[in-house]
């Protein structure tokens, strides 16, 4: 087998004829991936990682048939992983940040005051905004829906005249607003990583579609809530129980507990390096944990590695009737919590690396460029690719990794900044997933909130209006960032370095 340098594994030197793949052959590994994920991961409920490896094997067989050697494929995989390694390191630091903010009291304090503003007269709007705030602070859509969201559903069920489907739609919209616009979100960091864009730059660009979608959702919730005659207080008791437990567990030193959040915000505005900013924020949060919350130093360090655990509150500490909800909300974070995301990223990049080594990736990109004659059509193709990927794989990370790796060269060659790509794959992957009943997110939200996916889908307006705004901006040029000549030259050079070394015939 011929290596990248033309040398066989046994030390001899031979030549292999390298052939370019046809479009049908180039698409075969992607079709195989869709089948493996659909049958294996969805129908048989097998882990997604082995399915991606099987797809990589199919891609490797095709690459070998085209004349590419094992060492060449391995080198391309290594280069793909190396290209996003800095961003993968950010994911690990994000886990540390969440753990430190939990034990330091920053996240519990934000949740506490968020729940304080619950108003029966504006329940739909309040559910949207408070869940959004919680999700931004925690970086988890599922966690926010499973805790704050469940509390709001309890409020809805405890009041007459309130439509649970609207509340569920508000919760889902708010939860995924935060999932897209939180520096603590694994999906946000992953989308930034695969497009080679700084995470704060990525988040700022997401505002072009996500903020208008939130405004639309807020208007819908405000109008839907007008005239609702909400009576009964059963649900309010649940919120009071959660707040009571939080106030007993933590000390609210507002100034000190806000400093970790302010460090992140200032670092983002001043465009400082992400990892040092997050490490500084984590250090301050750990200081708060020891000095203000009176946790031990051991617990503080344990929290940033394995995540916060409510058992750290001490033996005999009683969280009261809300113990289950508080535990579900607070028991999270730590560097270890990001390992599953890293694993699936490595598997997906292995598939993408072999696809690139075979020339299939370049063939697909060239075919897409022929179809898409304008920026708007390229954006639409990206959105459709993302929706198709999440619909067939039902895996949020894969729906970011594969379209991002597939389409990044097309954006650069068109003079479009990859942050446009990152925004589009989030609009059609991350945020679209919970309104599809057969995906894991759709099933989770339906089961957790007690409302069928198709019932809350019309009210989860933030999840589907992003695609509409992305299409409008694509065709009008509004909110589209273009590369400067120097940026495009540098990125094209980076693409050239990523290409496999040609093998002589």
Automatic annotation (TrEMBL):
One of its GO terms (cellular component) is plasma membrane. Its main location: membrane. One of its GO terms (molecular function) is antiporter activity. It is a multi-pass membrane protein. Pfam families: Na_H_antiporter. InterPro entries: Na/H_antiport_NhaC, Na/H_Antiport_NhaC-like_C, NhaC_Na-H+_Antiporter. It is found in: Cell membrane. The keyword Cell cycle does not apply. Residues 174-478 form the Na+/H+ antiporter NhaC-like C-terminal domain. The chain crosses the membrane at residues 21-44, 50-67, 88-115, 121-143, 206-228, 249-270, 338-357, 378-398, 459-480. The keyword Transmembrane helix applies. Keywords: Antiport, Cell membrane, Membrane, Transmembrane, Transmembrane helix, Transport. Belongs to the NhaC Na(+)/H(+) (TC 2.A.35) antiporter family. This is Na+/H+ antiporter NhaC. It comes from Bifidobacterium xylocopae.
């Amino acid at each position: 087998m011929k290596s990248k340098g033309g040398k066989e594994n046994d030390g001899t030197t031979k030549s292999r004829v390298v052939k370019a793949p046809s479009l049908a052959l180039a698409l075969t590994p992607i079709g195989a991936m869709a089948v493996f994920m659909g049958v294996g991961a969805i129908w048989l409920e097998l882990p997604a990682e082995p399915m991606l490896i099987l797809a990589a094997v199919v891609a490797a067989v095709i690459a070998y048939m085209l004349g590419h050697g094992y060492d060449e494929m391995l080198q391309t995989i290594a280069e793909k992983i190396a290209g996003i390694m800095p961003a993968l390191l950010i994911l690990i630091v994000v886990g540390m940040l969440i753990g430190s903010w939990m034990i330091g009291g920053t996240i519990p304090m934000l949740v506490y005051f968020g729940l304080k503003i619950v108003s029966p007269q504006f329940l739909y709007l309040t559910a949207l905004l408070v869940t959004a705030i919680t999700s931004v602070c925690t970086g988890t859509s599922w966690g926010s829906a499973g805790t704050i969201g469940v509390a709001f559903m309890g409020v809805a069920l405890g009041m007459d005249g309130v439509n649970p489907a609207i509340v569920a739609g508000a919760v889902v919209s708010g939860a995924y607003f935060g999932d897209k616009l939180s520096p603590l979100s694994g999906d946000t960091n992953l989308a930034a990583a695969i497009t080679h864009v700084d995470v704060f730059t990525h988040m700022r660009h997401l505002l072009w579609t996500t903020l208008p979608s939130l405004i639309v959702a807020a208007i819908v919730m405000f109008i839907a809530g007008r005239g609702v005659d909400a009576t009964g207080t059963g649900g309010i008791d649940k919120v009071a129980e959660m707040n009571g437990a939080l106030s007993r567990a933590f000390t609210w030193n507002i100034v000190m507990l806000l400093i970790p959040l302010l460090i992140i915000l200032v670092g983002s505005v001043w465009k400082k390096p992400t990892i040092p900013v997050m490490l500084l924020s984590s250090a301050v949060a750990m200081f708060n944990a020891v000095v203000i919350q009176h946790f031990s130093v051991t617990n503080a360090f344990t929290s940033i590695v394995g995540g916060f655990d409510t058992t750290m509150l001490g033996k005999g500490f009683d969280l009261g009737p809300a113990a289950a909800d508080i535990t579900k909300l607070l028991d999270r974070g730590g560097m270890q919590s990001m390992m599953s995301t890293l694993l699936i990223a490595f598997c997906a990049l292995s598939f993408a690396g072999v696809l690139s080594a075979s020339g299939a990736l370049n063939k697909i990109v060239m075919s897409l460029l022929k179809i898409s004659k304008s920026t708007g059509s390229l954006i639409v193709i990206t959105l459709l690719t993302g929706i198709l990927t999440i619909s067939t794989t039902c895996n949020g990370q894969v729906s970011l990794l594969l379209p991002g790796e597939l389409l990044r060269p097309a954006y650069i060659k068109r003079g479009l900044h990859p942050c446009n790509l990152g925004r589009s794959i989030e609009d059609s992957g991350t945020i679209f997933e919970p309104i599809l009943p057969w995906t894991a997110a759709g099933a989770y939200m339906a089961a957790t909130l007690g409302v069928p996916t198709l019932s809350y889908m019309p009210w989860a307006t933030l999840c589907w209006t992003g695609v509409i705004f992305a299409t409008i901006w694509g065709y009008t040029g509004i909110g589209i960032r273009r590369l400067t000549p120097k940026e495009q030259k540098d990125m094209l050079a980076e693409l050239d370095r990523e290409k496999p070394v040609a093998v002589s015939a």
